[in-house]
Structures are given as C-alpha cells and as structure tokens.
C-alpha cells in the first residue's frame, strides 16, 4: 500500500482541498434525499396528494406524474441547499486558509498526501462556543482512499495537538446523514453529547439533525500517538513555525510546558 504522509497545508493545496471538501459534502445529497423520504410527515403529505388527486380526477396517471414531479423538486431542493452550503464555506472559509487557520492561535489546517497528491484534509480551531475546547473541522477523505485509516490518523494529529496544548476536550459537529463520519468518531472514542436542528422550516420538516460529539483528550491516550510519530507518518508536527505564523509551539517539550502551565493556571481559578 502507498505511504500516507500527513503535513500542514500549503497554498498550492488550495484547489485540491476545495475539491475534496466539495465532493465529501455533495455525496450527502442522495443520503439526505432518502432521509427526507423516510420522514413520516413527508410520506403522509405525499400519500394525501396521491390519493387526493386520484379521488378528484379518477385517474392514476396524473397522481403518478405529480408525485414524480414533487420528488424531482424535493431532490433539487436538497441538492441546492448543499450547493449553497458548499459555496458559502468555500468562499468564507477555504479561500482564506492561511489567515483563518495557519496564522491564528491554536488553529491549523492539515492534509494527507498519497504519492505526492493531497487525498484528505482536517482542520482545528479553538471552539467559539466552549472555552478551552478545540473544535475539529472539515475532516474529509477522497473516496478512493477511504478505510485506510487516513481520517483516524488526521484525528490523532488533532488529539495530540489538543493534549500538547492543554485542551481537555475536542468538540465537532456532524449530521444525521453522515453515518460514515459518525462511525469514525465513535470508533475513535468521541461521545455524542446532543442533537439539535437548525431553526429552519426545512430542518424541522425533514428532521435534519446535527450531532455534537465530544472527546475527552485524556480518554484518547489509548490511540497510540507515539507510535504514529515513530512511524514517521506525521510530518511537521514538531517542526519550527514558519516566520510570522502563530499557533503551534516549536517543539513538543515546549508545548507540554505550556500545557502544564495552562492546567496549573486553570486549577488556580477553580
Ligand atoms: C468519514 C470519513 C472522513 C472517514 O474517512 P476514512 O479515512 O475512510 O476513515 P478511517 O479509514 O480512518 O476509519 C477509521 C475507522 O472509522 C470507522 N469507519 C470509517 N468509515 C467507516 C464506514 N464507511 N463504515 C464503517 N465504519 C467506518 C471504522 O471503525 C474505521 O476503522 P476500520 O477501517 O479499522 O474498521 C470519510 O468517509 C469521508 O470523507 N466522508 C465524507 C466527508 C464527511 O462526511 N466528513 C465528515 C465531516 S463531519
């Protein structure tokens, strides 16, 4: 099997990371459509339309036609909402990776390479909702490179960083239709903390839940980060900061010292 190399994002990765992100999200369209069709409310509405039209027009063909058109329309709506999300995220987030991730405190954007080509991505930032939590974002792997442990390796990098910096919890968000992601996070040890819906009619009507997962960093010790470093699969983790870049400590030793200091200060506040 080809060797996977994990390294920090570089400007020349922009197009590929955008592509991998967009593909990973757009593949949720069919599953979201099926999820929508499974909702009892939607099934009842479709049945009412079908039998209502049949009763009024005494025809079978017309209701079939109308239901088919409704299904096409619903599929289109799902597709449009994902396209909107992708466009928004690419514009707001992926067009400023250097500023938003590489130059920000405790934030970073990572990629995994196979045979010199970027095949996966992952980012982390301090959580805006929870103080002292690190948020994991944008985990995505090219379809052809899945089930080889790449996402798990990328998550390990984030967990290792969190541990080094004294973050005690990692938080992330995924959706009801991202079942592969749910399996990945549960495999790593994340626990589902809560589920919620965005306050939109579509989310309510389609029962489109978002899940919040959290991982206690200490619980993740068993993941074997040292082994990962010995294997040399993670590049740049210990490397010096690029000039002008904030974020990571120069070395693990320094990072750990900072983490210990941080924990000590936290304890003083309790
Ligand atoms: C979710 C995703 C990132 C997983 O990437 P991956 O590199 O295939 O995952 P890994 O190979 O590291 O999987 C590690 C473990 O997670 C679990 N897992 C991952 N994908 C799984 C799947 N499709 N079915 C069952 N278990 C799965 C398994 O336990 C796996 O270990 P195993 O292969 O030894 O059984 C990938 O499927 C993806 O990019 N999906 C589309 C984008 C997406 O939904 N991203 C999540 C955003 S929140």
From TrEMBL:
Keyword annotations from UniProtKB, A to Z: Membrane, Transferase, Transmembrane, Transmembrane helix
Domain N-acetyltransferase stretches: 62-216
Record's protein name: N-acetyltransferase domain-containing protein
Species of origin: Paramormyrops kingsleyae
InterPro entries from the UniProt entry: Acyl_CoA_acyltransferase, GNAT_dom, NAT_camello-type
Positions of region (Disordered): 236-270
Any single Pfam family the record assigns to this protein: Acetyltransf_1
Keyword Transmembrane included in the entry's annotation: yes
UniProt feature, compositional bias: Basic and acidic residues: 255-264
């Amino acid at each position: 099997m080809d060797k996977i190399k994990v390294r920090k994002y570089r400007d020349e990765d922009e197009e590929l990371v955008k592509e991998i992100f967009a593909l990973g999200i757009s593949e949720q369209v069919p599953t979201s459509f099926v999820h929508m069709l499974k909702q009892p409310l939607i099934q009842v509405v479709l049945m009412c339309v079908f039998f209502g039209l049949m009763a009024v027009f005494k025809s079978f063909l017309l209701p079939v036609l109308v239901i088919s058109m409704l299904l096409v329309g619903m599929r289109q709506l799902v597709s449009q909402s994902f396209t909107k999300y992708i466009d928004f995220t690419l514009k707001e987030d992926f067009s400023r990776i250097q500023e938003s991730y590489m130059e920000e405190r405790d934030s970073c954007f990572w990629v995994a390479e196979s045979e010199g080509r970027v095949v996966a991505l992952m980012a982390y930032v301090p959580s805006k909702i929870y103080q002292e939590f690190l948020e994991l974002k944008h985990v995505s792997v090219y379809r052809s490179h899945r089930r080889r442990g790449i996402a798990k390796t990328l998550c390990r990098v984030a967990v290792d960083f969190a541990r080094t910096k004294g973050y005690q919890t990692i938080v992330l968000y995924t959706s009801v239709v991202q079942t592969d992601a749910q399996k990945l996070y549960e495999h790593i040890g994340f626990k589902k903390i809560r589920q919620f819906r965005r306050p939109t009619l579509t989310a309510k009507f389609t029962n489109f839940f978002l899940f919040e997962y959290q991982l206690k960093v200490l619980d993740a010790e068993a993941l074997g980060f040292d082994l990962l470093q010995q294997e040399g699969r993670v590049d740049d983790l210990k490397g010096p900061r690029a000039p002008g870049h904030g974020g990571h400590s120069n070395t693990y030793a320094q990072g750990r010292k900072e983490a210990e200091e941080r924990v000590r200060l936290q304890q003083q506040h309790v």
